Amino acid sequence: xxxxxxxxSYTKENPFPARITxxxxxxxxxxAKETRHFVVSLLGSDLVYxxxxxxxxxxxxxxxxxxxxxxxLHASGDELVSPAMLKLPAPxxxxxxxxxxxxxxxxxxxxxxxxxxxxxDASEKSKLEALLxxxxxxxxxxxxxxxxxxxxxxxxxxxxxxxxxxVDHQRKLMPRLYSIASSSRLHxxxxxLTVAVVRYTTNQRERHGVCSTFMADRVVLGETxxxxxxSNSHFGPxxxxxxDCIMVGPxxxxxxxxxxxxxxxxxxxxxxxxxxxxxxxSQTDFLYxxxxxxxxxxxxxxxxxxxxxxxxxxxxYVQDKxxxxxxxxxxxxxxxxxxxxxxxxxxxxxxxxxxxxxxIAEQGxxxxxxxxxxxxQLKKDKRYQRDVY
Length: 389
Description:
Layout: H1 2-7, E1 16-25, E2 35-41, E3 54-57, H2 63-72, E4 80-81, E5 92-93, H3 94-101, H4 109-118, H5 122-132, H6 137-145, H7 149-155, H8 163-167, E6 176-179, E7 190-196, E8 199-202, E9 205-208, H9 210-218, E10 226-231, E11 245-248, H10 255-267, E12 273-279, H11 282-285, H12 289-297, E13 303-308, H13 318-324, H14 326-334, E14 338-343, H15 348-363, H16 368-380, E15 384-388
Parallel strand pairs: 11-12, 11-14, 12-13, 14-15
Antiparallel strand pairs: 1-2, 1-10, 2-7, 3-6, 3-10, 4-5, 8-9
């Protein structure tokens, strides 16, 4: 009982100021990706977590970007503001709002209207007017997608906004949720994360994923307070350790399955484990390679199927590996096995779901309608679980 009470003292509303103690690049030289392994210390928190849970992390915006916005607003940063959506008991400084409380990306059509009303330069005004026309909806969406708030201040300098007017257009800076990549049975005082660091270019400007680059670039190991909370999930390994687990997690989707494996091995679960992992290149992108190979060698991992999309002329993905092992996969399911998927919701999870339906129909010798019922039942029995984003 006391553990539950203690753990609830730190929540999303009252996050724990954790310290990140490790920041390690998982990809090898020559990779097109930047995937990092972070260790977050829970010492002094009484936070508890289970395999399948996520960690919420509150980032801080880049100081250089905050400084440039303040300059473009012709402000000092000490101006007091009360962003409506924050419901603050008292005003805070513009610098504090931009650094810790408000999102600097994702401008909406509302600010285009405000800039139009404020612009004094004729060419700026006409450009804004064109974007606001009802028939320019798609154009406006694309225009905003490629820009952050700073871009708008640079492009429309004649529209002078006060600090308060500017922050009234911004959204709240939200915490980012990351699937936990460790088991508390093995690491009760720390949480491991597997994070793809986001860096790209739009509108000729470099963009930085707020939270991934906060952890990768701006956190000083062991020093920078990083506000975190545990987000409990219904996603998790079967309570009955004798049940088999099929885990499909390409890229950073492998994170919870590293936790599942640690958990099942630590608890002595006798059920079999089958992991499907995929990424671009085997030489540079095999995340936690040594750990998976050790599990295989020790007989803790029954099967490891790997899909590399850039190692050969034809791209190979995890769903292709599933189809190639259809008979075996079907026998695991018929034996009461659990099927888990983690990772990209837009394409991968849909393709994996389609492959699962096809395998069940084909191997079970049933029409697609019956296969759909079978999958529905799997979900109902919590034997088909997804953690997709």
